[in-house]
Amino acid sequence: MPFCTIVEFEWGENLDRERFERMAGGTNDSAPDGRLARITGIDDIGARVVEVWRSGDDARAFAEQTMAVTGQMPAPARVVGFNVTSYTLA
Length: 90
Description:
Elements: E1 3-10, H1 17-24, E2 35-42, E3 46-53, H2 56-65, H3 67-70, E4 78-83
Antiparallel strand pairs: 1-3, 1-4, 2-3
C-alpha cells in the first residue's frame, strides 16, 4: 500500500529559504528506491516536503539510510506519515 510523508519546516534562525533550497537538493538527483513522487514547496512561513512511497517500509528504509544527513538539518516543525487511500495523477 502506498505511504505518504509530509515534513514541514518553519523559517527561523536555523533555517532560511536559501539553506532549505540547498538541503532539499536539485531536481536532477535520482529518486531513491521506492519513492513514487516528491513535491517541495516554499512560502512566507516555511517549507514542506511531500513524498509518496511504494510502501511504509520503503519510506522507513530511506529515513534510516539518510539519518546521518537529516540529523544535521534543523528539526522539522511537523512530520506526518499515513497510508494512502487514493493516488491519482493527471
